[in-house]
Structures are given as C-alpha cells and as structure tokens.
Amino acid sequence: MRTAPYGSWKSPITSDLIVSRTVGLSSPSVDGDDIYWLESRPNEGGRSVLVRLDSGGTKHDVTPAPFNVRTRVHEYGGGAWVVDRGTALFCNFQDQRLYRVGKSQADPSPVTPALQVRFADGVFDRRRNLTIWVMEDHSGGGDAVNSIGAISSGGDGQPVEPVVLVSGNDFYSYPRLSPDGSRLCWTTWNHHPMNYCC
Q: Per-10-residue mean pLDDT for the chain, 198 residues long?
C-alpha cells in the first residue's frame, strides 16, 4: 500500500477508459416486428451503426464497416436514416450519399450519385414510391442551398438524381406526410428575422 498526498493519487480508471467502452444509443424506430436504432461505437472510432432487433430477439448490424450512419446537414446532423418494410435508406458520413440496404442484402448500394449534397430527415412516400429528404446543396460555392427533395426508392440499383420539391428559404426541416400520403408539411425559416412558417 502506498500513501499519496490528497489530490495526487493516480487512478487506473480514467475518463478515456470509461468512455471507450460506452456505446451510445439513439433514434429508435419500429418497423413491423423489428426495432431499429443507431449505436455510436467508440471502439470503432465513433462509427454510428444502424442495428436491427428482430422478432426472435436476435440483434443484427444493418450497416457494415466502414459505413457510418451520420449526416452533416446544417453542420450538426439530424435524421440520417429511415426504414420501411425492411428496407433502410441512410446517409453515409464519409461521402454524404444515400445508400439502401435490406434485410437480405449484405452490402448497401448507393441510391444517389456522388454529389455535393447532404441529406437528412427522410420519410418514405409509399404512395409514389419515393423518399423525401431535407437537402443541402454545396455544389455552388458560398452558402449552401437548402430545399426539400424527392428520390425514387424503386431499388433498381442505379443511383438517381434527387428532384427538388420545395426551395427558396434558408432552412428546412421535418418533412412529413399526412397519413393518407396526399399532403406534405415541413418547417422552414430564414436567417432574418428568423420567421417560422410551413
């Protein structure tokens, strides 16, 4: 046993040791009999993994390494994935492209081409076979152009260009469809004087 002055004792338990083994859980969602969520894994460099718990209680990693489910829309992220009937679409942090992965699909396939566009807050539109996203276009230099856009979710394996549905304001968030799919609502605002409208 060693005696040390008050405040100078070195503990083998450090904050880095504690945090390196703590898995963060967020964004739970139910899809049929399955439950999905994101796991932030410090032991994988902070990679965010989409995980599915099936009805039998078995846990599956939906997004294999090196995919990292995270978006940079508005620089702080937001809803980086959406799932419907066993098909998940997600934004990959490295290239900000959207990818599709299903229960029986080992490797995600790209949904969008390589663009300077970021995606967040997705919602499936079953009626039109689309997904609707907040989009942030960085291709023009200067300030990003924000909009709400739609992307075909046909799943033919070919990346498709998004189609802008709504634009003209500085920020957009939370596109949502009415229960019957006939109407779309969202939140939007401008820099000055930060008016909200929808």
A: 74 67 87 96 93 96 96 84 95 96 89 94 93 94 92 77 94 94 93 61
Is residue 73 classed as helix, strand or coil in its secondary structure?
Answer: helix
Number of domains in the chain: 1
* Cα gap 193→154, rounded to integer Å: 40
Q: Is residue 5 part of a domain?
A: no
CATH number for the domain harbouring residue 181? 2.140.10.30
Chain centroid to Cα 104, Å, comes to 21
Whole-number Å distance between alpha carbons of 146 and 73? 9
- Length of the chain counted residue by residue: 198
Euclidean distance between CA atoms 13 and 74, whole angstroms = 37
Look at residues 152, 149, 34 and name the one whose alpha carbon lies nearest to residue 89: 152
Give SS3 for 70: coil
For residue 8, being part of any structural domain is answered with: no
Give which of 117, 119, 132 is closest to 177, Cα–Cα.
132
> Which structure tokens are listed for 127?
């009626």
